[in-house]
C-alpha cells in the first residue's frame, strides 16, 4: 500500500469511533451468547443485520472524514487524481 500523508484524527474523533466499535463488539458477544442459548434464528439474524448496519455507519463516517480531510488536502496539493482513484477503489470495496 502506498504511503500517504496522514491527517491525524482528533481525540474526540478517535473516542467516537472507538466507542462505536466497542458497542459493536458488545453486540457480537451478544450474538455469541444467543447461539449458545439456542435462541430463535430470526432473532439472531435481526441482531446480525443491526451489526452490519452499525459497521456500515462507522465505515461511512470514516469515508466521509477521509474525503473531507485527506482527499481534499491531496486535491489542493496537486495529488488529487491519485487520492480520488484510491477513494473510488475503497468505495467499490466497501459497497460489496
Radius of gyration: 18 Å
Q: From the helix content, strand content and strand pairing, which structural class follows? A: mainly alpha
**Whole-number tally of structural domains:** 1
Query: Mean pLDDT across all residues, rounded?
Result: 92
Strand residue content: under 5%
The assigned CATH architecture is: Up-down Bundle
Say how many strands there are: 0
Largest sheet: none
So what's the CATH class? Mainly Alpha
> What's the shape?
elongated
Q: What is the CATH homologous superfamily assignment?
A: Metal-sensitive repressor, helix protomer
Q: In sequence order, what are the helices and strands, one letter per element?
A: HHH
CATH-derived topology = Methane Monooxygenase Hydroxylase, Chain G, domain 1
Low-confidence stretches: none
Helix count equals 3
Distance between the termini: 20 Å
Q: What share of residues is helical?
A: over 70%
Describe what this molecule looks like in 3D:
The protein is built from 3 helices and no strands. With 96 residues, the chain is mainly α. The protein has a single domain (11-94), classed as Up-down Bundle (Methane Monooxygenase Hydroxylase, Chain G, domain 1). The longest helix is centred in the middle third of the chain and has 36 residues, at 41-76. The radius of gyration is 18 Å and the shape is elongated. The two termini are 20 Å apart.
